[in-house]
Design brief:
Family: Belongs to the cytochrome b5 family.
Distance between the termini: 87 Å
CATH class of the largest domain: Alpha Beta
CATH superfamily of the largest domain: Cytochrome b5-like heme/steroid binding domain
CATH architecture of the largest domain: Roll
Strand content: 5-15%
Structural class: alpha/beta
Number of domains: 2
Main location: endoplasmic reticulum
Helix content: 40-55%
Radius of gyration: 29 Å
Subcellular location: Endoplasmic reticulum membrane; Microsome membrane
Pfam families: Cyt-b5 (PF00173)
Largest sheet: 6 strands, mixed
Shape: rod-shaped
CATH topology of the largest domain: Flavocytochrome B2, Chain A, domain 1
Number of helices: 6
Order of helices and strands: EHEEEHEHHEHH
Bound molecules: protoporphyrin IX containing FE
Membrane topology: Single-pass membrane protein
Length: about 150
């Protein structure tokens, strides 16, 4: 990763034209000049963000994983002075690719806690059944007590 080229926002901001269009997404610099005419959302969106930090704009659209995967095709280096995401993700050129890892980690953590979860379930069931038995017994007791009177 040390071989990655480093750019500043000042440098990126010079590439703000339709025929020379860079943008920064999650501290990574993308040269999307060749993509302007192919962007499924329309070239205007890219032009509006030319030479800029466009992480929020990219995320706000809710781009698909396919779109996220496409970023690596346009990656040219890292931006040294743009803000990182609040929740920093992987350090590879693909910036917002946590979808599957996040799902995987929840799956594996739920697997790890499987026995614990089962124990919790049993405890809850016992507590519930116990509660019902006590409630029914008290109702029966008071009903009988009333009848006796
Ligand atoms: C620079 C890297 C970008 C790539 C590789 C990219 C790629 C894509 C792709 C593949 C789609 C089709 C829908 C999908 O698969 O999500 C799309 C749609 C779209 N993109 Fe981008 N995009 C980029 C940047 C941006 C930026 C900076 C904006 C700014 C707002 C933007 C706005 C949109 C919009 C509005 C759509 C249409 C969404 C829809 O139809 O629901 N894109 N983009």
């Amino acid at each position: 990763m040390s071989e990655d080229k480093q750019y500043t926002m000042e440098e990126v901001s010079k590439h703000d034209k339709v025929d020379d269009l860079w943008m920064v997404i999650n501290q990574k610099v993308y040269d999307v000049t060749s993509f302007v005419n192919d962007h499924p959302g329309g070239g205007d969106y890219l032009i509006q963000n030319a030479g800029k930090e466009a992480t929020n704009e990219f995320l706000d659209v809710g781009h698909s994983q396919k779109a996220v995967d496409m970023l690596k095709d346009y990656y040219i280096g890292v931006c040294t002075d743009s803000k990182p995401l609040q929740n920093p993700l992987s350090s590879n050129p693909i910036p917002i690719s946590t979808e599957s890892p996040v799902i995987k980690s929840t799956e594996s953590s739920s697997n790890n806690n499987n026995n614990e979860d089962k124990n919790k379930d049993v405890t809850t069931t016992i507590a519930l059944v116990g509660g019902i038995v006590v409630a029914v017994a008290s109702i029966a007791f008071f009903t009988f007590a009333k009848i006796k009177k």
